[in-house]
Amino acid sequence: ELKVEQNPLFLSMQEGKNYTIYCNYSTTSDRLYWYRQDPGKSLESLFVLLSNGAVKQEGRLMASLDTKARLSTLHITAAVHDLSATYFCAGVQGAQKLVFGQGTRLTINP
Amino acid sequence: DAGITQSPRHKVTETGTPVTLRCHQTENHRYMYWYRQDPGHGLRLIHYSYGVKDTDKGEVSDGYSVSRSKTEDFLLTLESATSSQTSVYFCAISETREPQHFGDGTRLSIL
User: Is the omega angle on the peptide bond into residue B8 within 30 degrees of 0, that is, cis?
Assistant: First the structure.
């Protein structure tokens, strides 16, 4: 059974700083997803990582996947307040079944 | 934005009452999903559908049933609501594989 764990669960940082959110998963997952959720809102798809060594970037966010280590990272570069949100990673178990991590609540202070 | 509408958006009800949540899509996607979101758990899959009248259980299906009589509608029913089912419920749709688009959620409180 796939288990997905994120850390940290809470992260408070200052604008302009860099930081990384980690996503560990317990068994093989063919794909790894990252989502963003603003308070009271739906989930917005950020990245899907399809293979070992995959790296995707969008603005100040960069996601990577190491299938051998069963680890994905979401790196934030020079954080800005607008990136404050909760970020989820999710692996795939079987067909059509996403297994989510607990989420990382990111607060970026001016 | 993908055409997904969840109704109601908020509901407060009492333990033991039946509750039905509706997910309506205008994208004609094959797959539809129901998730619940609770603090510390992320989202957990309740049930999903891979076509009209074709459904399967997710990891937290106990106490829930679903129906899909039309491509565009996926209903989630709590036959006899319990306080442990207080949660935020999200519907999602996809043309292939895993969920691609999520609805805005239904906040359900069971007193």
Answer: yes
Q: Give me the amino acid identity at A68.
A: K
Cα–Cα–Cα angle for A61, A63, A69, nearest 5°?
A: 150
Residue A54 to residues A34, A90, B25, B70: CA-CA distances in angstroms? 13, 15, 32, 38
HSE-CB at A110 with a 13 A cutoff on CA atoms is 0
Does the beta-carbon distance from A88 to B41 stay under 8 Å?
Answer: no
> Would you call A31 and B98 a contact, using CB atoms and an 8 Å cutoff?
yes
**Using one digit for the tens of pLDDT, what is the confidence trace for B36-55?**
999 888 899 999 999 999 99
Instruction: Give the three-class secondary structure for A81.
Output: helix
Rg (alpha carbons) of chain A, rounded to whole number:
13
Confidence of residue A36 (pLDDT cuts 50, 70, 90): very high
Is A102 part of the contact surface with chain B (CB cutoff 8 Å)? yes
Check B90 against A92: CB less than 8 A apart: no
